[in-house]
Design goal:
globular; alpha/beta; 13 helices; 4-stranded antiparallel sheet; TIM Barrel; 298 residues; disordered C terminus; 2 domains; Urease, subunit C, domain 1; 8 strands
Length: 298
């Protein structure tokens, strides 16, 4: 209901976008969240639907599959609303390790959390009184919306759509506690709740997006000749998916660090030009041979 208030391109603009995409040989990634907008996106020959449709039927799911369109899941942008009533959400160690202290303090601030409700309403329903938004912001309403979105995604998944793990941050200050990084892990857990297997989720996070972007020759699976971007886990995520949220080692372009050390490396890169990085900033020890490396097992 709320998303229908947002403006969309008219027919002339849509045609111009298609023509320009063809001219420069670029794929179209289109935001579409309801039945009408998804049909428009499919008419425009979308390569990827950004955000999985929240309202559709079997016929629309069939059309998505038949056209071979990728669907970037962002159920987190809906489900995160429920965390407003979950005081333990922000105490997650992983969340606290990656979010800067000043930002975390702002997110925790009760006044900012309350103001975020008003800001979200202003964006989604411009011109409507704030008291209406506050009236609609009830836990049972949020739960209903989340459950409906999950049902729609499950239908899409069962239909055989090509799912790509997505994430969203909503933008400050609409939902201040949904941030890129933590939101990806949040989305993974949602996909698990909705019936995707651990292997399907890992595939949606690695191989499928690489295929979507046309870079599967370099990324997406662990193979000789491909870029060494992978993580090392304490145990098999296909048996215990929770371990995927706490990697022991992380390798990027062949550079290996313990997960917590990457934060230090990132700060070092930000604070100084790349050519002045010290040897100490990139020095690592050998990984333990008993641990398992996984990006996407074939």
């Amino acid at each position: 209901m709320l998303m229908s208030t947002l403006p969309i391109f008219n027919t002339e603009q849509q045609q111009a976008i298609q023509e320009e995409a063809r001219r420069v040989q670029r794929n179209l990634y289109i935001h579409a969240t309801d039945t009408k907008h998804t049909h428009i996106a499919l008419d425009m020959k979308a390569h990827t639907l950004v955000h999985s449709p929240q309202k559709f039927n079997k016929n629309l799911a069939k059309r998505i599959v038949e056209q071979g369109v990728y669907v970037c899941s962002t159920i987190d942008i809906i489900a995160i609303t429920l965390e407003y009533w979950n005081p333990n959400y922000l105490s997650n160690p992983t969340f606290r390790n990656v979010v800067p202290k000043d930002e975390l303090e702002a997110i925790i601030d009760p006044q900012i959390r309350r103001l975020s409700i008003d800001e979200a309403w202003k964006v989604m329903m411009p011109g409507w009184p704030l008291w209406v938004g506050r009236l609609f912001f009830q836990k049972w309403i949020a739960e209903t919306q989340v459950n409906e979105a999950k049902k729609m995604f499950q239908l899409l998944h069962r239909s055989g759509a090509k799912i790509v793990l997505g994430s969203d941050s909503s933008g400050w200050p609409i939902v201040p506690y949904l941030l890129h990084g933590p939101s990806t892990h949040y989305e993974m857990n949602l996909l698990l709740e909705m019936g995707m297997s651990p292997l399907e989720i890992i595939t949606a996070a690695t191989q499928t997006p690489a295929q979507m972007l046309g870079i599967e020759d370099d990324l997406g699976t662990i193979e000789i000749g491909k870029k060494a971007d992978l993580i090392v886990l304490a145990s098999n995520p296909l048996e215990d998916f929770s371990v995927i949220h706490n990697p022991i080692w992380v390798m990027k372009n062949g550079e290996l660090h313990k997960a917590e050390d990457w934060l230090h490396v990132a700060k070092t890169i930000t604070a100084a030009p790349v050519q002045k990085r010290t040897k100490e900033a990139t020095e690592v020890s050998d990984p333990q041979p008993s641990q398992q490396a996984i990006e996407n097992p074939k």
